[in-house]
UniProtKB/TrEMBL annotation:
Pfam families: EFG_C, GTP_EFTU, GTP_EFTU_D2, LepA_C. This is Translation factor GUF1 homolog, chloroplastic. It is found in: Plastid, Chloroplast. It comes from the Eukaryota. CDD domains: EF4_II (cd03699), EF4_III (cd16260), LepA (cd01890), lepA_C (cd03709). Promotes chloroplast protein synthesis. May act as a fidelity factor of the translation reaction, by catalyzing a one-codon backward translocation of tRNAs on improperly translocated ribosomes. It comes from Dunaliella salina.
Length: 658
């Protein structure tokens, strides 16, 4: 949000006229409008098969429009995409399903976009001129912010969809700034105007005041009933600028998505920025240095339709017998091996996991199945990292790295659904930076890997810039929440009379547990949040170790701030006392920092009344029986093993932080 003032000031007056100021490129000389051969048309009966030949008709560069749809979760992005596909006859009505672009069942169930997609649409405007509209979808969650940025880099324009009843939310702002950083023409769209709770005037005022967009020509639609879709298509054609005509330059193409196909290897989805690429070309990935020969090239309409060549400005896919998505990373630049570009397209970074957790099979016989399943998932997801891990409590498993909490939940759900695995997941942790006494810098993703205190010089943890957009009534509650999680207050801005933005710098470790749930609870569901990494900061961090019956439980150990350690330790041992079942012997549960015990609880044993048969006689007889029982309990404790249920390993998540 540091960009808020700069973007509003620089763009509010000129956004509306951005398209008219850009120079329109000339026709692409190398593309004399060939059509797709009959043999490459879609199979009969497939979605969009009837329109395949028309969808792939070549159009001049000035008639290509590459755009994306950006919105906060549940503001109607996928529904609007469905209507655009229907209106342009890209998908026949009989083949249409809700959230057509969301191909995964989990996406449809949760109502969010996890894996982006794209579709080429053929549209004839009111003047009778043919246009090729390339819709490049974007994921809808902060975990996938890098993929969003690469998708937007492949576009010239974006539809900003805002719910007419909910108004501007945190993710709306974050996505707008990302679009403006990529110099996109932003077209505001007011969705759900047919709802009884819609307040278009208030929301238009919010968009103008908060974002700085001129809403004189705002599009008012209802994607659910198909109202105003024609106006959206006309606005895309008239207001989104065409790509630049750079067909004479060496090939540069931006990979904005890739996935693994069991028969053809990795399929790359890309946007040709400069030059052209054809079937049979030898290509070079400029950041990974890998070379491949293009076997197949085509466009998504929305099913695959092969073509011979793709030119500057066009969006398509390619198969080149690439073995792993690691060799075709999102954001990489494709060029030709013989006629190489001088420099790659800007913005490429190698995505690093920020949240780690342990995945263990409930049945130890499924360990190899879990390894195979993770290998297969990693073919599709280059951001997923894993390595073997052994836990005294849970046996053999894997330490896995994820982009964020949602990414972690999706991977776990896919493993359980698609590979029939029963998994135990440990509480998530973030990555820490540790400097040892001899000056070596270590990246720590598990408390078990942390060096002893005497071997550490300093510890640093990742911080994020957290922005919360909330009705003014809940400002006090959310400030209290952020400060209780070690948040450092930065600023507060009144967006409108009734809406406020709160900005805090806060440790990522405090956000990845239950922060979002508590935020929604304290604001009665009205507040929204967005965060971005700002780097590492040194803090007084300690390893809080949990011992059950004297044995360290590595999976329950956490790295926390020293000031929070006593409270956290007390809460954790109390929770474990409730969740771990009673044994035949006494079970001590201890929270320790080094050798110092800071909190402890005991689980009482089951106990037989051995003195029940003593109806009289000397007291020494009872003492003898009790002594014999105590010896047996002691022997059991030495040999016994405490079975810890899965709920206990998630206890860190469920602690009452209020």
């Amino acid at each position: 949000m540091a960009l808020l003032g700069a973007h509003c000031g620089a763009n509010s007056s000129s956004l509306r006229n951005l398209a008219t100021k850009r120079s329109a490129p000339q026709l692409c000389r190398a593309a004399p409008a060939p059509t797709v051969p009959n043999e490459t048309a879609l199979p009969a009966g497939g979605p969009g098969a009837k329109y395949a030949a028309g969808q792939c008709t070549k159009v001049p560069v000035k008639n290509i429009r590459n755009f994306s749809i950006i919105a906060h979760i549940d503001h109607g992005k996928s529904t609007l995409a469905d209507q655009l596909l229907l209106k342009t006859n890209t998908v026949a009505e009989r083949d249409m399903v809700e959230q057509f672009m969301d191909s995964n069942d989990i996406e449809r169930e949760r109502g969010i976009t996890i894996k982006l997609n794209s579709a080429r649409m053929r549209y004839t405007d009111s003047q009778g001129e043919l246009y090729a509209l390339n819709l490049i979808d974007t994921p809808g969650h902060v975990d996938f912010a890098y993929e969003v940025s690469r998708s937007l880099a492949a576009c010239e324009g974006a539809l900003l969809v805002v719910d007419a009843s909910q108004g501007v939310e945190a993710q709306t702002l974050a996505n707008v700034w990302l679009a403006l950083e990529n110099d996109l023409e932003v077209i505001p769209v007011l969705n759900k105007i047919d709802l009884p709770g819609a307040d278009p005037d208030r929301v238009i005022s919010e968009i103008e005041d908060i974002i700085g967009l001129d809403c004189t020509d705002i599009l008012k639609v209802s994607a659910k009933v198909g109202l105003g879709i024609d106006d959206v298509l006309e606005a895309i054609v008239k207001r989104v600028p065409p790509p630049k005509n750079t067909v004479d330059k060496p090939l540069r193409a931006l990979i904005y998505d890739s996935y693994y196909d069991a028969y053809r290897g990795v399929i790359c989805q890309f946007r040709v920025v400069d030059g052209s690429v054809s079937r049979g070309d030898r290509i070079l990935m400029m950041n990974t240095g890998k070379e491949h020969i293009v076997d197949e090239i085509g466009v998504l309409a929305p099913n695959k339709v092969t073509v011979d060549t793709l030119y500057c400005g066009e969006v398509g896919y390619m198969a080149a017998q690439i073995k792993s998505v690691k060799d075709a990373r999102v954001g990489d630049t494709i060029t030709l091996s013989k006629n190489q570009a001088q420099e790659p397209l800007p913005g490429y970074v190698e995505v690093q996991p920020m949240v780690y957790c342990g995945l263990f099979p409930t049945d130890s016989n499924q360990y190899q199945d879990l390894r195979v399943a993770l290998d297969k998932l990693q073919l599709n997801d280059a951001a997923l990292r894993f390595e073997p891990e052994i836990s005294t409590a849970m046996g053999f498993g894997f330490r896995c790295g994820f982009l964020g909490l949602l990414h972690m939940e999706i991977v776990q759900e896919r493993l359980e659904r698609e590979y029939n695995l029963q998994l135990i997941t440990t509480a998530p942790t973030v990555i820490y930076k540790c400097v040892t006494a001899d000056g070596q810098e270590l990246m720590i993703n598990s408390p078990a890997d942390l060096p002893e205190p005497q071997k550490r010089r300093s510890m640093a943890e990742p911080y994020v810039r957290l922005e919360m957009v909330t009705p003014t009534d809940y400002v006090g509650n959310l400030i209290e929440l952020a400060t209780s999680r070690r948040g450092e207050y930065q600023e507060m801005r009144y967006l409108t009379e009734n809406r406020t933005t709160l900005v805090f710098d806060i440790p990522l470790a405090e956000v990845v547990t239950d922060y979002f749930d508590v935020l929604k609870s304290r604001s009665k569901g009205y507040a929204s949040m967005e965060y971005q990494m700002i780097g590492f900061r040194e803090n007084d961090l300690v390893k809080l170790e949990i011992k059950i019956n004297g044995e360290p439980a590595d999976a329950l150990s956490v790295i926390t701030h020293r000031d929070n350690s006593y409270k956290l330790g007390k809460q954790l041992v109390s929770k474990l006392k409730e969740l771990i079942p009673r044994q035949m012997f006494k079970v001590p549960i201890q929270a320790c920092i080094g050798v110092k015990v800071i909190a402890s609880e005991q689980i009482a044993p089951y106990r037989k009344d051995v003195t029940a048969k003593c109806y009289g006689g000397d007291i020494s007889r009872k003492k003898k029986l009790l002594s014999k029982q105590a010896e047996g309990k002691k022997r059991m404790k030495a040999l016994g093993r405490v079975e810890v249920p899965q709920e206990a390993f998630m206890a860190v998540l469920n602690l009452d932080n209020d």
